[in-house]
Amino acid sequence: MQKVSLSQDLKSNSYPGRGIVLGKSADGRYAVTAYFIMGRSVNSRNRVFVEDGNGIRTQAFDPSKLSDPSLIIYAPVRVLGNKTIVTNGDQTDTIYEMMDKQCTFEQALRTREFEPDAPNYTPRISGIMHVENGAYNYALSILKSNNGDPSSCNRYTFAYTNPKAGEGRFIHTYMGDGNPLPSFEGEPTLVDIEGDIDSFTDLVWNSLNEENKVSLFVRFIDIETGAYESRIVNKNK
Predict the structure, then answer these.
(1) I need a labelling partner for 144 at 20 to 30 A (CA). Which of 71, 83, 152, 181 fits?
(2) What percent of the chain is predicted at pLDDT more than 70?
(3) Going from the N-terminus, what domains does the chain have, and what CATH number goes with each?
(4) pTM over 0.90
């Protein structure tokens, strides 16, 4: 697979929806994740990311405008020991709780499927990063309807051991704007990971469609020590 520019990939898609990037920094020191959300409706755009322990959660920016919290209020990031879980929905909690009981990432996601938001049937995308004793690996998953048919759920997991410096994988919910919204297709995109946490955060945020972007979370985890730095950018301020 040919590596592409993450910035150009984002700029070429006005509505990737929600997206997860996992990878390794160009200097090889950090495990990297970015998670962003976008929105077309007032309800979807009325959100911010806030810190929640060592993870984050979504929150209504203006509580008076919150019409349906069911699919937009959740914890996108939670940490379980040396594992960082990143998802686009409440399956974060499913993964956390089941892995805490010694189940695997795949076993936890087997209990879930795509979102019940007909006619889009938005895919559930999930990632997990495992950093321990100087070693790093990660996995990404997508649960999607069978070409828009909700009677079938297609499940895919992609695992990456000892990822290369300066490379990441990018998965998102939609191929682009539309009605219904077309689900992501294929293998996660091989993208470049450039710069330090601040320049990488700026690159992702500035590459997202200005009208539709809502919030961005970025974390760099030191692979040797497990210490991390995070950034949150919210359009609503």
Answers:
(1) 83
(2) 100
(3) 6-234 (3.60.20.20)
(4) yes
